Amino acid sequence: MKKTLLIAILFAVLTALFSYLYLANLKNQYKSKDEPIQVVIANQPIAQGALIKKEMLSEIAIPKRYRQPRAFNSLDKMFSKEGKSVYMALAAIDEGEQILPAKVSDTNNETGIAHIIPDAHKALVINFDNENTSVLKPGNRIDILSVLDYSDNNNKSQESSFVIAQDILVLAVDDNYLGGSNQKKKDNDNAKGAITAAVTIEEAQIILLAGEKGALKFIIRPIGDNEKINSKTIRMSDLAADISKSISRDSANQAAQNKQEIMNIINKYSAKN
Fold first, then answer.
1. Cys-Cys with 109: which of 49, 115, 199, 209 at CB 3.0–4.6 Å?
2. Overall number of domains in the chain
């Protein structure tokens, strides 16, 4: 009897001990996850293709469990010893977002343009017709238009202007790459050079086809404008019709004005008599 009681007590003690050790270990695990750890976050929205500067970032302490894998934990790792920018944003970074290696690219990389192409995009070299590309800078965003002739359903030739691609990131202008710390100076500021743009496969197909069949033009977007709109195709016939309507309205207005002036003269003459 005493032996059975002793064994029962021993099992109870061991159960209590193992429960204590398990709970203590669990507590330590949770405590470890809640320990503060330093990470680098964006203190403002950072546009895709932007060169990352110190004023765009902050160091903060967060619970360890909330740190993203491989997130930067020090500003010193993101800038040179002289404090110069080392990274550019491969994708847009939201305010408060942790800075991850997958979203930035080292601008000192010597592998050419391949390392700055955003995810799900390719680099396409584009030659624009009669355009001065010196106004463009790497990192600008553009819309691309095509002006071409085609035959409509009535077999009539139509000259039209189409917006074929919107919000396109310029990766390079001639040999000046996005994020390059020492951009090369063109010998001739009026030179018409090629640009390299980040496009999807579908956008590349459309641009190449439009370039073969007509002229390519570009317009530059203001900083922060990433809106894509449903644009209307403009035909030369539409433009001519609008001009004709304008002339007709002007002619009608002039005729009414002349008529009113004649009536004023008649009324003035009648009043004197």
1. 115
2. 3
Q: Which helix (H) or strand (E) holds 251?
A: helix 236-272
pTM: 0.58
Q: Who has greater pLDDT, 33 or 234?
A: 234
Please check whether residues 131 and 95 belong to one and the same domain.
Answer: no
CB atoms within 10 A of CB 272: 5
pLDDT value at residue 124: 95
Q: Are residues 48 and 104 in the same domain?
A: yes
14 domain residue, yes or no: no
Mean pLDDT score, 247-258: 55
The DSSP code for 55 is: G
Q: Are 73 and 38 in contact (CB under 8 A)?
A: yes
Residue 73's domain is classified under what CATH number?
3.90.1210.10
Terminal C-alpha separation, the chain: 146
pLDDT at residue 190, as a whole number: 47
Same domain for 187 and 82? no
Q: What gap in Å lies between CA 4 and CA 13, rounded to an integer?
A: 14
Domain extent, residue 260, equals 235-273
Those residues with Cβ within 8 angstroms of residue 208's Cβ, 6 or more apart along the chain or in another chain: 124
Question: What's the CA gap between 117 and 171, in Å, rounded?
Answer: 8
Helix (H) or strand (E) holding 165: strand 157-173
C-alpha angle 35/39/40, rounded to 5°? 165
**Token code pair at residue 221:** 């977007």
The answer on 240 and 220 residing in a single domain is no
From CA 226, how far away is CA 174, in angstroms rounded? Answer: 24
Distance CA 262, CA 202 (A): 64
2: phi then psi, degrees, rounded to nearest 5: -65, -35
Q: What is the mean pLDDT of residues 100-112?
A: 74
